[in-house]
Amino acid sequence: MPTPQAVGEAASAPGHPHGRKGRVAVLPLSIAALVACGVMLLLLAGGSAARRGCQFSGADRTTLSGGGDDRGGLDQAGPRDGEHGTMLSSKVQRDRLIGGLLAPGFDKHSCISRYRSALYRKESPHLISTYLLERLREHEVLQKKCGPNTESYKKAIEQLKSGQDIMAGDCNYLVWVSYSGLGNRILTIASAFLYAILTNRVLLVDGDKGTADLFCEPFPETSWLLPPDFPIVQFKNFSIGSPESYGNMVKAEAIHSDGSFKGPKPAFLYLHLAHDYDDYDKLFFCEHSQQHLQKIPWLILRSDNYFVPSLFLIPSYQEELTRLFPQKDVVFHHLGRYLFHPTNVVWGLITRYYDSYLARADEKLGIQIRVFDTETGPFQHVLDQVLDCTLKEKLLPEINAQQPIISTGNIRSKVVLITSLNSGYYERIRNMYWEHPTENGEIISFHQPSHEEHQDSDKKMHNMKAWAEIYLLSLSDVMVTSAWSTFGYVAQGLSGSKTWLMFKPENRTVPNPPCRQVMSIEPCFHAPPFYDCKTRRGTDTGKLVPHVRHCEDMSWGLKLVDTGEL
After folding, report:
1. Fewer beta carbons under 10 A from the terminal one: N or C of the chain?
2. Contact 287, 317 (CB under 8 A)
3. Angstrom distance (rounded) from CA 486 to CA 467
């Protein structure tokens, strides 16, 4: 039998498949570690050492994982999951592009999370259509051709400055204005991106409120950030009353029914799709309005809504949307995983917390608590609702208040991640499970990354922590979220799993039932139009097509569902 030294020498020989410089000294240590591990497992079979597996102290990570490459290699440590560490390393090699959703070729160091999220996230059960992949690659070409610092962009900017009556050409633009809280901003960027794909427009995002501090660039070899010298300097102040808005121009009869303009055609139009928009603004979702907007080279969008469901009601987009998303309830799931990669600073917040507190548990439960109340909590009825939901749906085990210790043969561990602006809920639930054993002997640990007390969307670190907590929540095996919360919608959409949604309490009483599992993983459009563009009268837009229904948590809201699952 060859000695470890002989094996090491053979591996270093030029003809050996692993004979690369730098691995000779590692292999003897690796084999010795394997032998020691085998002996330990035999001695401690069934114990905690066997359950955790063996750690290869000092071994070369590339030897164990198969090496790395320039597009998301494995030279940085992943989640500490001793038993499955090597399996996870090979998993990220197989699916670091998320089934083709992501484009290869990015510098892995500029955005570590892009190609390493597969180490932390379960493989999605939702298939991606080949047509969506084709359109994403086409859109990346458009963004590169027409994005900032290109000749096409410079020409378009000069025409915009001139204010002349210009025609839409090969490079047309949609500018997203940063507005509202982080959850709303993420949902509106995704909505704007889908609209940009449907209308072949370059998406440029306003860098206000730290967009570049939160998200990596999603498109290869270009930037999606709107340059700071954008000539329409007042665009951040546009609102419902701005005369540049499409709705106000229709109201003033500056646009004729055939789409022509009274006077010179403007070089840009403002789209006001925020929660306070009026009936004229809502005409954006009508077919004739889309025909008008096709002629405008620059559109500036301000919204705090996930308006994707109403795009599915516009006739000219329905065939394209069906090809992009044969499964209707995965729009944000796919677009969110494509667009939103945490920057290295945020990724550090995520991975340090995950590896320290979440990685080793048998099961991860995420609980997101959002209270819409002007007074400071914690509130007893909210705590009662959380416990009623988690205990009734058997997401948490019952406690035993009679016995000090419960002994079982097979102890499972469950980690509960709680996100809330208030620490009171976490402290009281944690204490309950510390002071009493669980009925089934399950070991429960509770963690809350931060408690900011109130939302402050203008602070850089506040937004970074919020984004980190959204992402950590999305890594849960099971999740409980709060009604009306865009924070919860984003976590749910990224996870790809149906959450248990806690209904909004009324009169500070616990709803009955306290929660239910959602019918789809899509976010809710909180302020949809109720207008039939064909008949030109009000209608229930939640009953026009089978795949657009009213939301569980907001009776007037709209969300996409997959009719095959209902």
Report:
1. N
2. no
3. 12
Question: Is 433 within 8 Å of 446 (Cβ atoms)?
Answer: yes
One-letter amino acid of 306: Y
Asked whether residue 78 carries a pLDDT value surpassing 60, the answer given is no
Instruction: Read off the tokens for 183.
Output: 């959850």
According to DSSP, the residues that pair with 184 across neighbouring strands are none
Query: d(Cα 273, Cα 64) in Å, to the nearest integer?
Result: 52
Residue type, 226: L
Could you tell me if 305 and 110 are in contact, meaning their C-beta atoms sit under 8 angstroms apart? Answer: no
**Domains plus CATH for the chain?**
125-329 (no CATH), 344-560 (3.40.50.11350)
Identify the residue with better confidence: 468 or 442. 468
C-beta separation of 480 from 500 below 8 A: yes
Helix (H, G, I), strand (E, B), or coil: what is residue 378?
coil
Angle at which helix 130-146 crosses helix 151-162, to 10 degrees, equals 70
Could you check whether the bond before residue 243 is cis, i.e. omega within 30 degrees of 0? no
Rounding to the nearest 10 degrees, give the CA dihedral for residues 487, 491, 497, 499: -30
Sign of the alpha-carbon dihedral angle for 519, 525, 531, 532: negative
- What is the rounded distance in angstroms from the CA atom of residue 158 to the CA atom of residue 171? 13
Tokens read off for 9: 């020498």
CA–CA dist 466, 450 (Å, integer): 9
b/e code 413-441 from CB counts within 10 Å (16+ = b): ebbbbbbbbbbbbbeebbebbeebbbeeb
Contact 4, 32 (CB under 8 A): yes
* Longest Cα separation, the chain: 91
Quote the tokens at residue 371: 């209270």
Element holding 416 (H helix, E strand): strand 413-419
d(CA 141, CA 120): 30
The count of other CB atoms within 10 Å of the CB of residue 260 is 10
The letter for the amino acid at 444 is I
Tokens for 167?
A: 């025609």
* CA-based nearest residue to 467, from 306, 352, 346: 346
Which residues, other chains included, contact 80 with Cβ-Cβ below 8 Å and sequence gap of 6+? 355, 359, 360
Q: What does the alpha-carbon distance between residue 472 and residue 125 come to, in Å, rounded to a whole number? A: 19
Distance of CA 359 to the CA centre of its chain: 20
From the list 494, 123, 523, the residue with the least C-alpha distance to 341 is 494
Compute the average pLDDT of residues 139-156. 97
Contact 239, 272 (CB under 8 A): yes
Residue 255, amino acid:
I
- Confirm if 516 and 552 have CB atoms less than 8 A apart: yes
Length of the chain counted residue by residue = 566
The tokens describing 395, both together, are 């997401």
- Tally of CB atoms within 10 A around 328: 22
In the DSSP assignment, the letter for residue 354 is: I
Q: Judge contact between 280 and 155, C-beta under 8 A.
A: no
Task: Express each pLDDT in 226-269 by its tens digit.
Answer: 999 999 999 999 999 999 999 999 999 999 877 788 888 899 99
Q: What is the pLDDT of residues 455-468, one digit of tens each?
A: 666 788 999 999 99
